[in-house]
Amino acid sequence: MTDSAMVLAEGDSHFPPGIDSFNFADWFSGLSDTALTHMFTTITFGVWASVAVLIVFFLWAYRKPQIVPSKKQWLAESAYGFIRNTVAIDLMGKKTGVRFAPYLATLFLFILVMNFWAIVPGIQVSPNSHIAFPLMLGVLSWVIYMFIGIKQHGFVKFMKITCVPPGAPWFIYPLLVPIEFLQNIILRPVTLALRLFANMFAGHLILLVFILGGFELLNSGNLLIQGLSVFSFAMGIGMTFFELIVIALQAYVFTLLTGMYIQGSLADEH
Amino acid sequence: MIEAAEGSAILFPIWQEIVVGAVAFGLLCFVLMKFVFPLMEKTFEARVDAIEGGIERAERAQEEANQTLEEYRRKLATAQEEAAAIRDEARADAVAAKEEILVSAREEANRIIAAGHSQIEASRQQLVRELRGEVGNLAVDLAGKIIGQRLAGDADTTATVDQFLAQIADETAETSGAR
Lengths: 270, 179
Prior knowledge:
The complex is a heterodimer.
Chain A lengths: L2 H8 L31 H20 L9 H46 L15 H22 L1 H9 L9 H46 L4 H44 L4
Chain B lengths: L14 H136 L3 H25 L1
Pfam families (chain A): ATP-synt_A (PF00119)
Membrane topology (chain A): Multi-pass membrane protein
Family (chain A): Belongs to the ATPase A chain family.
């Protein structure tokens, strides 16, 4: 039994939803006091299920690739080709783009499917509403673009390219260089992680507000107020569709920004 | 682990989840980037090759068709020229034949006319020759008759001479008319 279901069953005692709505109990209560706590929860289930879905789909769809693709092969190629063409090749050109397309496509698909759990009935929470996963991905993007930049230019030159914008008057540099450093070296992974995390967190919270709010109204005992719950549930459904847009958009934005950072590391100019 | 009272707690990651996320994402990257996406790039390349090859083949076929058409047109033009030449030749031949026939016909006609003339000449000569003989005989006859009649009377002699002269004049007129 998932925690969301528990929340729904208990109803009014959890309204309004707060940050404790994002705490999920261990599936195996024996683990709770060991280092393995949080390893088997609805959240980690979402992670593993995402990975499993993607691996199984792509290996199945691309078992025997044909020049003239079958429907499933076409679908798999479109998923990869979308990021490959609109992000990797558009940003970095054909040759370099193709080199980074596999990572960017994997990143996009991983975030997309992880986000998608936010509107899957019965789960309705994305693992990305826990900061750990967006942060892990953000730091990974940081490691990649720092590594590529240093490999491409050497540490000193890369720092210069990244932190010293050309064309500014000399007296502005004491102000500009720290800002650029903070922005490009420190804050990038943080903003990447926070943007994704906050969107998914807020999305889950909004769905909880309208759905739990609906139950709250239903339990009120007053017929008129009970009738209002219809609007609350309708909003919940509407917000689910809205959430669908956010899911795709945030996955795309995260991938696009990572691509831009990598491209920035490869470029010779600031 | 996370206390509900602390709102900022949501910003601190649970390290177990980081481990789970890293391992899961690492596995996904390994599988997709090693076994799936490179294969897709290969398929894309093969597809581009196939399309470009197809275009090349089509271009080649088009060129071949154009060449055949050109050749056909050239042959047609040659054939038309040949036909015109044959027609002209035939026409020239016909004209030549007609000329030839005309010439030979004219020659034939001339020859026939010439033959006619010579024949007429020959007949005249013969006639003159015969006439001469006749005239001689007639003269002898007349002389005989005159001599005989002198013996009989003068009047008859005069008549005989007149008759004879008229006869001669007639013959002469006849001969010169034929000429």
